[in-house]
Structure prediction request, 197 residues.
Amino acid sequence: MMSLLKLVWKRLFFVIGLILVLPLIALTWLEKGLLGQAQNRVFSGCMEILSICPTILGTYLRSAFYWAVCTNVSPDVLFLFGSWLAHRENSVGKGTVLGAYTFLGYADIGENVLFGARVSVISGKYQHGRPEQRVEGTDVTEQDEVIRIGKNSWIGQDAVIMAHVGENCTVGAGSVVLRDVPDGTTVMGNPARKVNV
Prediction:
């Protein structure tokens, strides 16, 4: 009975959040419809405004907005203060919690993933081109990659994720993940390496 009542309250707050962000959702859809997927100025402005809305109201405003405008964001995702998604193409599974000031580039996040504060999931190692391109002074070719993080993983505070993380993994606080992390693995350090705990 208690869990049903809790679910009803959560859905009620979600619907209130959805109603409050409807103008932002409409503007974002209009931008996408008129200017195409590549234009993100309205989307970016909305996410910046919503990222700094405090309290539980801000959490539900962010959840409702991302649910409505992104590829596949569950209404049961908690976006804590300062957290935001950089792209509409993101996917975030239910039960996931994005800690304060957490940033997601292009990402596909499984269910029940817990992010600590100030985690950055950037769009691969070469989103600003390869090092040799910058040294040679040639045109830089951006190579965005959708980073996948499997269900039930925990990403520690201040981690930087540039490669895929499997299911049931732990990434230690402050770690920098440069290589894919297999299912059930704990990694720590810079660069992140497997540890036995």
Notes: The first strand starts at residue 72 and ends at 73.
